[in-house]
Write a structure and sequence with these properties.
single chain, alpha/beta, FAD/NAD(P)-binding domain, seven-stranded mixed β-sheet, five-stranded parallel β-sheet, 7 helices, 24% helix, elongated, binds NADPH dihydro-nicotinamide-adenine-dinucleotide phosphate
């Protein structure tokens, strides 16, 4: 191993509630944690508006403000928070240390690793959707981030889960009309969230409806061609913004060679009730492993578990 390899006792990958909570516990336990934030510092909550269900904030708090506070709390106890993207790992020799590469160049040798990389928004995968997404021309997976650009305009949103309902409702306050495309004849969302959408005057819900193509003029979105999957009928809906809210994919590809994952990419716990993965000394917290609860508070809880498990692991090794 060359001299340029940095030795780290406890590496935390990811900067959502799971990562920062792990950092708070690890720092207070003198594990000298280094936390790499990834491409979206603060994680998914930075794209959320009001968080009303995290205990301890009786009046609510915005997602970005909460993440700033969590980072400050982690840094207060000495967490080394860095901007960087983990692009390669080698977990083949736990006793020799876990090798991690950041941004293609920086090499780390870690006593223990906590994976808290979360999940990212999914897209439909249509060529036309990707084209306008890449050019920033009217496709988005985050109404809270981008809804403002469509103020006074008409938008379309795909999805029928809680996220889609939340985002449709958010858009309805900015846009003249929101059309919601639901691929089945019912919502997946909780009753209360679905009802709120149904009760909103300027949201039109089209059931059994799938997106065939995102239409545009080369510079931006002008509409969507949709198909009713029961009647086979196609139609066009004019809009300037096309929002996708169809779920998330866990950010675990970089670990897949070494870490056991479900078919969906979510990391498998090696032992129920712990944060252990199949590799000794590598632990997981938050949405990278959680396809059931996916809440900020459960992510924080598993972040705590991962730090405690990592501390015990290091102690057993005499560190
Ligand atoms: P979900 O997986 O719950 O829902 C995804 C939705 O997208 C489903 O309705 C699904 O349809 C639809 N979908 C998937 N693929 C396609 C496609 N190719 N074309 C059209 N539609 C598609 O994801 P969410 O992000 O909504 O929610 C994730 C978790 O987070 C849930 O547990 C949810 O309860 C929670 N959450 C809670 C919130 C809150 O309480 N405030 C807010 C947001 C999320 P189908 O139903 O047919 O499968």
């Amino acid at each position: 191993m060359s001299d340029t390899v940095e030795k780290i006792k406890c590496l935390i990958i990811g900067s959502g509630p799971a990562g920062y909570t792990a950092a708070i516990y690890a720092a207070r336990a003198n594990m000298e944690p280094v936390l790499y934030q990834g491409q979206q510092p603060g994680g998914q909550l930075t794209t959320t508006n009001e968080v009303e269900n995290f205990p301890g904030y009786p009046s609510g708090i915005t997602g970005p403000a909460m993440m700033v506070e969590l980072q400050q709390q982690a840094e207060r106890f000495g967490t080394d928070v860095r901007f960087g993207w983990v692009d390669h790992v080698d977990f083949s020799d736990p006793d020799g240390g876990h090798k991690v590469r950041v941004d293609g160049t920086k090499e780390l040798l870690c006593g223990t690793v906590i994976i808290a990389t979360g999940a990212s928004a999914k897209y439909l995968g249509l060529e036309s959707e990707q084209k306008y997404l890449e050019m920033g021309g009217g496709v988005s997976a985050c109404a809270v981030c981008d809804g403002f650009f469509y103020k006074g305009q008409e938008t379309v949103i795909v999805g029928a889960g809680d996220s889609a309902c939340e985002e449709a409702h958010y858009l309805s306050k900015l846009c003249t009309k929101v059309t919601m495309l639901v691929r089945r004849d019912e919502f997946r969302a909780s009753k209360i969230m679905a009802q709120r959408v149904k009760d909103t005057e300027n949201i039109e819900i089209l059931y059994n409806t799938e997106t065939e193509e995102v239409l545009g003029d080369g510079a931006g979105v002008t509409g969507v061609r949709v198909k009713n999957n029961v009647t086979g009928e196609t139609s066009e809906i004019p809009c300037t913004g096309f929002f996708v809210a169809i779920g998330h994919k866990p950010n675990t590809d970089v670990f897949a060679e070494y870490i056991d994952c479900h078919d969906t990419g979510y990391i498998k716990y090696a032992e129920a009730g712990t944060s252990k993965t199949n590799v000794d000394g590598v632990f997981v917290a938050g949405d990278a492993a959680d396809f059931t609860y996916r809440q900020a508070v459960t992510a924080a809880g598993t972040g705590c578990m991962a730090a405690l498990d990592a501390e015990r692991y290091l102690a057993a090794k005499g560190h």
